Amino acid sequence: MKEKDYFEMVINFRRAFMGRRNVRFRRALRIIRETIKRHTGATRVILDPVLVDAISTNKKDKIVRRIRVAAKKIGEKTYLVQLAVKA
After folding, report:
1. Which residues of the chain have pLDDT under 70?
2. Euclidean distance between the first and final Cα of the chain, in Å?
3. For the chain, which residues make up each domain, given as ranges?
4. Cα 84 to Cα 8: distance, rounded to the nearest angstrom
5. Dihedral, CA of residue 36, residue 42, residue 47 and residue 51, to nearest 10
């Protein structure tokens, strides 16, 4: 698998809406980490606090349907995931 230094992608939270309401936020964070690990082969994924705030308004059950993220390589097999701004 070829490692990428910087890329943007849209992550859909369809799986986060299945099941109970009170675990949606945690499930959404896990979906982001799993998706980045699957696409890059990373062992460590760091989420930016601005991205975490953009996922949910109340940090519990009201989350967005999809989000655009930008992943940047900051170390060996370590990626920083930030909220992507559409240009």
Report:
1. 1-3, 87
2. 29
3. 6-83
4. 7
5. -20
The pLDDT of residue 3: 66
pLDDT digits (tens, 9 = 90+) for 38-59: 999 999 999 999 999 999 888 7
For 1, other C-beta atoms within 10 Å of its C-beta total: 7
Q: Which fold has domain 6-83?
A: Ribosomal Protein L31e; Chain: W; (3.10.440)
Reported in sequence order, the residue ranges of the chain that DSSP labels E, i.e. its strands, are: 6-12, 44-47, 66-75, 78-83
What type of residue is 79? Y
Quick check: helix, strand or coil at residue 4?
coil
